[in-house]
Amino acid sequence: MIVETICALAAVYAVIRIIFEKSTLKKLAYLNVLGFAVAGAIVLLLPHPITIGAAVAYFVGATLESNAIASTLAVGGEE
To answer: Is residue 38 a contact partner of residue 18, using CB atoms and an 8 Å limit?
Structure first.
């Protein structure tokens, strides 16, 4: 139960930082932390083998989303 609590606290901390962070680029790092925490919580809280696949799918999707946003911002910043 301690590990699940740590994942939940990391997710809550990331959400708070995302809400109050002014820089969009800094928000992306916390968005990745949130993705890690949610994927970890899925695996730890649902004791079924298929949840590993769900967590992997969620994590890969969140990572691709963050990378797409970061790439868009990086290209927009060079112009």
So the answer is: no
Output the pLDDT for position 77: 56
Domain of 15? 2-78
Cα 41 to its chain centre, rounded Å, is 11
Per the CB < 8 A criterion, the answer to whether 14 and 33 are in contact is yes
Burial 48-63 (b: 16+ CB within 10 A, else e): eeeeeeebeeebeebe
pLDDT tens digits, 14-46: 999 999 999 877 887 788 888 888 888 888 888
Domain count, the chain: 1
Predicted TM-score of the model (pTM): 0.69
The residue type of 72 is: T
